[in-house]
Design goal:
The complex is a heterodimer of chains A (about 200) and B (about 475).
Chain A (H helix, E strand, L loop, with lengths): L7 H14 L20 H10 L3 E4 L5 H8 L5 E4 L13 E4 L5 H6 L2 E4 L3 E3 L4 E4 L16 E7 L3 E2 L2 H7 L6 E4 L4 E2 L7 E2 L6 E7 L1
Parallel strand pairs in A: 1-12, 2-3, 2-4, 4-7, 5-8, 7-12
Antiparallel strand pairs in A: 5-6, 6-9, 10-11
Chain B lengths: L25 H9 L2 H23 L4 H17 L1 H14 L3 E5 L2 H14 L4 E4 L3 H5 L2 H7 L3 E4 L2 H8 L16 H11 L11 H18 L2 E4 L3 E3 L4 E6 L3 H7 L3 E7 L3 E2 L5 H12 L7 E6 L9 E7 L3 H5 L15 H5 L1 H6 L10 H12 L16 H5 L6 H15 L5 H14 L1 H17 L11 H4 L12 H7 L1
Parallel strand pairs in B: 1-10, 2-3, 2-4, 4-7, 5-8, 7-10
Antiparallel strand pairs in B: 5-6, 6-9
Helix pairs in contact in B: 3-12, 16-18, 18-19, 19-20
The chains are: A alpha/beta (about 200), B alpha/beta (about 475).
Pfam families (chain A): LUD_dom
Organism (chain A): Micromonospora orduensis
Protein name (chain A): Lactate utilization protein C
């Protein structure tokens, strides 16, 4: 090796291989006897979302627009991803469909309305995966209020079930309640940089 | 001991850069924090709160012990196959449109990140809280190159504005209470409302206003990573405030620096760690936000992604068959929150960015035990950290192993080195350890209080009462509960 420049890659990998060279390694068997599936309980999802200060509305799909009309001020502006079902939006709000909206307009909106990919009942989590009814990650980040419409068949009981449904190559955002911090005396405070209000509309 | 640096030999983290070494020994630094009653009150309050929260959500998980065993095994398997998993991760990230860089140490990593920031034409970067970037002293390196690094995590912001040092892995400003934070904001935060109160939600709102424009106008972000999946090239960052989402979404360029041990083999492995980490760390069923991304997604988020893989002494840790379990650490900080020594001494006393029990085993191994020789002693070996660790790192075992190494380095057999070598062997063998603990309880009957230990152990009892051994050992109590 003398006299030849060694790349950092070769150096790091060479050191790690040398570090492991000493011992004989029996392959490690990973015990996977933890729970993979649970009994789905929509009430548990509602309870756990509420516990982390999300607002949950359980309505029929036909009532989504009326529910949103109740949540948002009349005359308000909402950002929506391009694939959001138009029937979800009430006539009382102005919808800005994302065709490459700039950050200033997204941030100035009163709310964003999205669909969801998966939800986890045990942890009170909603996952977005950038599908057309969820849109770019920035849409659900800058507005101060996030309204997420979730179908019951998107809800699973456990984290392992959720991961099995998701596609790792998509940009994924796991959301469990509104933005929060515990950095001051470990007291949980809702609302730092992300949306300060999270509404989940759960439809059958 | 620093090993000579040539290809193939694991090397410890170089001195003179980064924050793995303190300016003084643990006892000297601890003496100062012990004299600060406000600090001790803040720490006691915070660790008591988080212990109760964490215990509550762990009790909700009927399979917690199975998850711990799985987490420990996944990490042990990862360490056994680390080189090939890193190569697989590299290939997947490149395939997804990312660029992968390798850094043998802190100096190289700082140079790589600085060059990338310069190439992006930026004089400011926004940062997501990252232990690895603190370990290498990235902010100082960027500053020397004329680049401002803005910490966006609330606790990191408090530390940065207060010109302070972090003292906890999860909550770096744990040593500050709300009144102190208000004073720091009033003094250092540009444009702050002079009527700011010490209410935590008012303080959080002040940080939101202060950072919003910075998030929107800064073209480069630097993050760490909680996990990187070799099988898919997916990176994951776990956070609470949304500052992470801002940094991972808004800038044009994203630079992620991670220690090589953060890789996990498969996508499915995340199902274990996403359950272990929030419950052990913040005491939540799930943290508010987790972001996962794979390379570059056209039209969504940063369009340039760089992954920097950092060694900086990790190869040397890996080379130690007892000590390498410290590389399983997922930085949850549960061991800090249960540690009686941490609760009294605070994080600064450990000198390194990695405080508490995990720091006491990780820092001396990364630097070589000579450079952090007092840290393996910063523990009572009570074992609470081992029981709290979500990936079952046997911290007492590694501490004792490192004590023997520190004593060996002084090259003379002493009563202590012999006792520590025996203790290391005993702790390696749980049955022997339990037997030894039961034997110490027998001394409760045999010995009389107030007489201290016989030589050569009377150095300890000369200035302290020897406590009566408890009627039940910690491990017995734990097994029975």
């Amino acid at each position: 090796m003398v006299g030849r420049a060694v790349s950092a890659r070769d150096l790091v990998l060479g050191r790690l291989r040398a570090a492991l060279a000493g011992g004989a390694h029996t392959p490690v068997e990973v015990p996977r006897d933890y729970r993979h599936e649970g009994t789905l309980d929509l009430d548990q999802l509602v309870e756990r979302l509420t516990d982390y200060r999300a607002h949950v509305h359980r309505v029929a799909e036909a009532a989504v627009a009326d529910t949103i009309a109740d949540i948002l001020p009349a005359g308000g502006t909402v950002v929506v991803p391009p694939g959001l079902p138009p029937a979800w939006l009430p006539p009382t709000v102005t919808a800005l469909s994302d065709d490459g909206l700039d950050n200033a307009r997204i941030g100035a909106a009163d709310a964003v309305v999205t669909g969801a990919a998966v939800a986890v009942a045990e942890t009170g989590t909603v996952v977005l995966d950038g599908s057309p009814d969820q849109g770019r990650r920035v849409l659900s980040l800058l507005p101060d209020r996030h309204v997420c419409v979730l179908r019951a068949d998107q809800v699973v009981a456990t984290v392992p079930e959720a991961l099995a449904r998701l596609t790792p190559q998509r940009p994924l955002t796991w959301i469990s309640g509104p933005s929060a911090t515990s950095d001051i005396e470990l007291i949980r405070v809702e609302g730092v940089h992300g949306p300060r209000k999270l509404h989940v509309i759960l439809v059958p | 001991m620093n090993r000579p640096t040539f290809l193939g030999m694991p090397a410890t983290a170089p001195p003179g850069v980064g924050h793995l070494r303190g300016d003084e020994s643990f006892p000297a630094a601890a003496r100062r924090s012990l004299a600060d009653p406000q600090l001790r009150r803040n720490l006691r309050h915070a660790t008591t709160t988080i212990r109760a929260k964490s215990a509550g959500v762990i009790a909700e998980s009927p399979d917690w012990e199975q998850l711990r065993a799985a987490g420990a095994a996944i990490k042990a398997d990862t360490l056994n196959r680390l080189p090939e998993l890193l190569e697989q991760l590299e290939a997947k990230v490149i395939e997804a449109g990312g660029v992968v860089h390798w850094a043998a140490d802190a100096v190289q990593a700082n140079q790589i990140v600085t060059d990338l920031v310069r190439a992006a034409g930026a004089d400011r970067v926004i940062k997501v809280k990252s232990m690895a970037t603190q370990e290498i002293g990235l902010n100082e390196a960027l500053h020397a190159a004329g680049v401002t690094a803005v910490e966006t995590d609330l606790a990191e912001l408090i530390v940065q504005l207060g010109d302070d040092r972090p003292s906890h892995i999860l909550v770096p400003a744990i040593h500050r209470n709300r009144a102190e934070i208000r004073e720091i904001f009033l003094r250092e935060m540009p444009g702050v409302d002079p009527a700011l109160t010490a209410d935590p939600s008012a303080l959080a709102a002040a940080a939101r206003r202060y950072l919003r424009e910075t998030f929107l106008s800064t073209p480069v972000a630097v993050s760490g990573a909680n996990f990187a999946v070799a099988e898919t090239g997916t990176l994951a960052v776990v956070e609470s405030e949304g500052n992470g989402r801002m940094c991972l979404t808004l800038p044009r360029t994203l630079i992620t620096l991670m220690g090589v041990e953060k890789v996990v083999p498969t996508w499915r492995d995340l199902e274990v760690f996403l359950q272990l980490l929030p419950r052990a760390s913040t005491g939540e069923r799930m943290n508010p936000y987790t972001s996962m991304w794979t390379g570059v997604t056209p039209g969504d988020g940063p369009q340039a992604f760089h992954l920097v893989l950092l060694d900086n002494g990790r190869g040397a840790v890996l080379a130690d068959e007892v000590g390498r379990q410290a590389l399983r650490c997922i930085r949850c900080s549960a061991c800090l929150n249960v540690c009686p020594v941490y609760e009294r001494a605070g994080g600064h006393a450990y000198g390194s960015v990695y405080p508490g029990p995990i720091g006491a085993v990780l820092s001396p191994q990364l630097t070589g035990v000579d450079d952090n020789a007092s840290l393996p002693y910063a523990s009572t070996l009570c074992g609470a950290c081992y029981d709290a660790c979500p990936v079952q790192i046997n911290i007492p075992e590694v501490l004792v192993h490192l004590r023997a190494e520190a004593v060996d380095a002084r090259r003379r057999p002493t009563a202590e080195s012999i006792a520590m070598a025996a203790a290391a062997y005993t702790m390696d063998h749980p049955r022997l350890y339990e037997a030894a603990q039961r034997a110490s309880r027998l001394s409760r009957v045999a010995g009389r209080r107030g007489r201290g230990l016989p030589p050569p152990l009377n150095g300890w009892t000369a200035s302290r009462d020897l406590p009566d051994p408890p009627t039940e050992t910690f491990r017995e109590w734990w097994a029975a509960r």
